[in-house]
Design goal:
This protein is an alpha+beta fold and 215 residues long. It contains four helices and seven strands; from the N terminus they run ααβββββαββα. It has one domain. A hairpin with a 3-residue loop joins strand 4 and strand 5.
Length: 215
């Protein structure tokens, strides 16, 4: 007597399909999060390379930072001789036509907007480089500008609303990437950046710590 052939019944097939669907539902979000983290890391790496380029530029130019297009040739062109030509865009930047995803903190240029008496355009003039933001990720609608500026409100210091209007503070989920004046980079959640903007004496934007003079 020949052995009985085994085969999937319709119910068993439906069970297998259901199990595959459940596993896919569990795995796909994890894969998406992994891909998102990889892109955030690539963006962070681009900023780190910009930091290296800035350090080399400072060494060759009497400690001066590369400036924005308002003062001279843009920092983008100034860094290109150091081999930095394909690191100016974040992988998830939705603005496809602009040259760079990143913007320079105007407080690190001569006579910045809203504080014309300041000049922190040289590394040696920045009191606490590890605390002061140098480059950030620009919002989608920022256009082609190579820098951002956030002037102080008359009584409320530096506005978090104005900052978030120019800096994409949640480009990578709840966070964004930042390059500081000493060359180190960080991914920071917006909730962590807000206290740096609000705190009296903060050097996060203004190197002299006078951005928020009022309690």
């Amino acid at each position: 007597m020949s052995p009985k052939k085994s085969a999937f019944t319709l119910v068993e097939l439906l069970v297998v399909i259901a199990i595959i669907a459940i596993l896919a539902g569990l795995l796909l979000p994890a894969l998406a999060r992994g891909q998102s983290r990889a892109k955030a890391t690539a963006c962070l790496s681009n900023l780190k390379q910009i930091g290296f380029g800035v350090a080399l530029y400072c060494g060759d130019n009497g400690d001066s930072f590369p400036l924005s297009a308002h003062q001279s040739a843009s920092w983008i062109g100034r860094l290109e001789p150091y081999g930095l030509t394909h690191i100016y865009r974040c992988p998830v930047d939705p603005h496809k036509s602009r040259r760079t995803s990143f913007a320079l903190n105007d407080f690190l240029t001569p006579h910045p907007f809203g504080a014309s008496s300041l000049d922190f355009s040289r590394l040696g003039r920045v009191p606490a480089p590890s605390e002061t933001l140098h480059y950030a990720e620009a919002v989608r609608d920022f256009g082609t500008s190579d820098h951002f500026h956030v002037a102080e409100a008359p009584s409320d210091g530096i506005s978090t609303h104005a900052f978030a209007g120019q800096v994409d503070v949640v480009r990578h989920g709840p966070s964004a990437n930042y390059l500081f004046a000493d060359g180190h980079v960080e991914g920071r959640r917006w909730a962590r950046v807000i206290p740096d903007l609000d705190r009296i004496g903060s050097r996060f934007l203004r190197p002299d710590g006078l951005g928020n003079p009022n309690p």
